[in-house]
Design a protein that fits this description.
Order of helices and strands of chain A: HEHHEHEHEEEHEHEEH
Helix content of chain A: 25-40%
Oligomer: homodimer
Strand content of chain A: 15-25%
Distance between the termini of chain A: 38 Å
Number of helices of chain A: 8
Number of strands of chain A: 9
Largest sheet of chain A: 7 strands, mixed
Structural class of chain A: alpha/beta
Radius of gyration of chain A: 20 Å
Chain lengths: 235, 235
DNA sequence: CTCTGTGAAGTCATTCACAGCG
DNA sequence: CGCTGTGAATGACTTCACAGAG
């Protein structure tokens, strides 16, 4: 175990590894080598080993990694053993969709509240989960009372910086931003921006050039989990 | 103008530059230097010049860039001068939210259809825009008839690969994926994955270490567009 | 003999720094 | 003079390749 600073690319991949391990665990697989893991999920085995190497020695030479053990290790590294409480600012379509997104709970995240400044919306409850819409002015108090430690920005771009400032004032250190805007934050606050516009426009660039090879894609590989028909309702 | 291959990081940034130029244009700014642009939007001036340099010489020495001109140039580079037609697979909460997202039109994207396999949903129309929910089985025909060239995957992870395969069979070359799954695609198909789980889990890692400096964040800088109070409804 | 863990090599991306255009 | 455009320098990330543990 060294004490270099870990790149965000590495932590992103750790999250992906964790997801793979969950799948393997559900399939009853007990152990797996970095190579087999890489092949099954379109990853690179050397990179898996290197990423893990930053945090310790989790493997067994000649064998590979024990799925359950590694799962717990990565869970701990990512801080997912402790629960996180999330609030979303902006009770529009996206905010409401996120508030009811079922995928968060596996990672130990719970959506606690939705904030908005629209009188019409405040006091309502949104979606199946009946998440309460609260006045954005009450944010500082609610953050404290509800022990919220992660905030999601789902407001229009032109108010995003202001909302971020309020969020930082409330003492939040981790923010997921969906507004298409370049935000500036204090150094001790981590803002991750998910920029749909940029993603789409980047796709458009790809479509605009009939270039031969799309280097960014992974090698083609048949998947192993061709399960039977199911509904597509969950998101 | 060279003919190197352009990194996705560069095209992502071009999209950001375009957004900044839109803001400047609306503010009536006629020209701007790379340095001023960088300062106003937390960017790096050398990088702006280098990114643009891959595509041509758009600046005027001693002056900077003409906002309207550069805007059009980047629009063309990203292929945003031609309209794109988008369909979304998965008429769940996220799919419905995306189908009615107003931010796409500025980039010349129009959401044409929603696909699902749930009998209950097929035939309905979703949101203010009344986007029709169609049977996913009709996808190949609809893609042709409606000239759809971009698809969005908003289905649960376990069916995402199968949906992607169908999408590729229908001849689509550009896909935006919201399912938390590692997908494999043909080399001539570009898949961009927006992974909420990974984004959140990476934030969790950041919270788990009380490290002094969050290197990934931009320098703190006061914003210049502190506009007056508005609603936060649009997403 | 298999597979990890890891320096060393290689590749790709960002930033510097300045010649030279307008 | 100010600013772009760009090689050259630096830095970051990935992949190779292998010593050595089990």
């Amino acid at each position: 175990m060294k004490s270099e600073k870990i790149s965000e690319l590495t932590t992103n991949r750790l999250s992906v590894y964790l997801r793979c391990l969950n799948t393997l665990s559900e399939a009853g697989i007990k152990s797996i080598s970095s190579q087999a893991l890489a092949e099954q999920f379109n990853l690179n085995s050397a990179q898996i080993r290197k990423d893990l190497g930053y945090f310790g020695e989790f493997g067994v030479r000649g064998v590979g990694y024990y799925v359950e053990d590694l799962r717990q290790q990565i869970t701990k590294i990512l801080g997912l053993d402790k629960p996180h409480r999330v609030a979303i600012v902006g009770a529009g379509r996206l905010g409401a969709a996120l508030a009811n997104y079922r995928g968060f709970s596996r990672s130990n995240f719970t959506v606690v509240a939705l904030f908005d400044n629209d009188e019409e919306k405040i006091g309502q409850r949104v979606g199946e989960d009946k998440v309460a819409v609260l006045d954005v002015k009450t944010m500082p108090n609610v953050v404290k009372k509800e022990s919220i430690d992660v905030m999601v920005i789902a407001v229009p771009a032109r108010v995003a910086q202001r909302v971020l400032n309020q969020i930082m004032s409330a003492g939040i250190k981790a923010v997921l931003n969906f507004a298409p805007a370049s935000l500036s934050a204090r150094l001790d606050v981590k803002v991750k921006t998910v920029d749909l516009t940029t993603s789409l426009e980047s796709l458009s660039y790809f479509l605009a050039r009939p270039s031969i090879s799309a280097v960014t894609n992974r090698r083609r590989k048949p998947q192993f989990d061709e399960v039977s028909e199911v509904n597509e309702q969950e998101l």
